[in-house]
Write a structure and sequence with these properties.
Blueprint (H helix, E strand, L loop, with lengths): L5 E5 L6 E5 L1 H41 L2 E2 L9 E2 L3 H7 L2 H32 L6 H8 L7 H11 L6 H10 L14 H26 L3 H9 L4 H29 L3 H6 L11 H11 L3 H30 L1
Helix pairs in contact: 2-12, 3-7, 3-9, 3-11, 7-9, 11-12
């Protein structure tokens, strides 16, 4: 019958030949299915990211060239770069960018300091270490909206626990309007974000500390290095890649801070906590200027992409 790629068998029920794939063909099909299996699992997530992020970003770029206002009937009117020109001359946009930095920079600095301190304390073996880490990272498990609601209640002027504790400690009534006063609104937002995200920074730094060999510290101690010199000359330089990652991740996250602002202050009092994300939201979904809001969003995105690139390039040059 000669060599064939398929073997022929008679089925008992029908008495006619049934074609079955050979062992080699079956093995190739199985290997192909095995190679494609990861794509089957990743496919839905990739489609979701594309539709939810990339497609929407490209659509926002398209809309930014139109005068698209939801309260006005009719098709959007093409205006070219008019929205971008208006954004560059919008004093409120640049004020909101400044307000964003007045919140983001202190919050980032405090999160790094407290996260590093907590990681140093927990970077040793002691009884209950796992429980301590689990309790400390609990705020990270809470959504930003839930954290904002919780701290809004805690900072309530008349019945909030924070003012009550301060009243008991000072011996006189304390009714600070944390979220309604110009002096305390920004510190209240910073405090909430530091409580919420410091454990995240701690986890990253703790992972970095775990990768540093004890032999390096041992050799430095033999040479007479003090605890402070160990920290400055060994720990910090070896943690530099982790700290760079922390600054980049948390910096981007703080620049687009929105949930806490929306829940706690809605940009007030006045415009003291109106960040750039809230200002874009206000124009897009309060004033219904979708085209203009899209243009502002792309301006901010491009600015921080360029800033991130120069920041990373600078760090690469420093590390050489």
């Amino acid at each position: 019958m000669g060599q064939r790629s398929e073997s022929v068998r008679l089925t008992a029920a029908e008495g006619r030949p049934s074609v079955w794939p050979s062992g080699q063909a079956y093995a190739k099909g199985k290997a192909r299915r095995r190679r494609l299996t990861p794509f089957y699992f990743a496919g839905p997530a990739v489609i979701f990211v594309f539709v939810g992020s990339i497609f929407m970003a490209l659509y926002a770029l398209y809309i930014s060239f139109f005068d698209y206002q939801l309260q006005r009937p009719g098709a959007p009117r093409f205006v070219g770069l008019k929205n971008y020109a208006e954004a560059f001359t919008d004093a409120k946009l640049w004020t909101s960018i400044w307000q964003t930095f007045t919140i983001a920079v202190p919050a980032l600095a405090l999160e790094i300091v407290f996260g590093l301190a907590l990681a140093m304390l927990l970077n040793r073996s002691f009884r209950g270490r796992a429980i301590a880490i689990s309790l400390i990272v609990t705020p990270v498990m809470v959504s930003s909206a839930a954290a904002g609601m919780a701290w809004r209640l805690l900072l309530e002027p008349r019945y909030g626990p924070v003012n009550d504790i301060l009243s008991r400690l000072s011996g006189q009534p304390v009714q600070i309007g944390w979220l309604s006063s110009v002096e305390w609104a920004r510190p209240a937002i910073v405090l909430t974000d530091v409580w919420h995200m410091t454990p995240f920074v701690m986890l990253l730094v703790l992972a970095g500390l775990g990768s540093i060999s004890d032999d390096i510290y041992g050799a430095a101690k033999i040479d007479g290095a003090s605890g402070w010199r160990l920290f400055v000359d060994i720990t910090l330089p070896l943690l530099k890649p982790i700290l760079v990652l922390v600054i980049l991740l948390r910096g981007i996250d703080l620049v687009r801070i929105f949930d806490l602002i929306f829940i706690m202050t809605k940009g007030g009092p006045g415009t003291i906590t109106k960040t750039v994300s809230y200002y874009i939201y206000e124009n897009g979904l309060s004033f219904f200027r979708i085209g203009y809001a899209s243009a502002m969003a792309w301006i901010v995105a491009i600015f921080f992409i360029i800033f991130s690139k120069f920041y990373l390039d600078y760090l690469r040059k420093e590390s050489r």
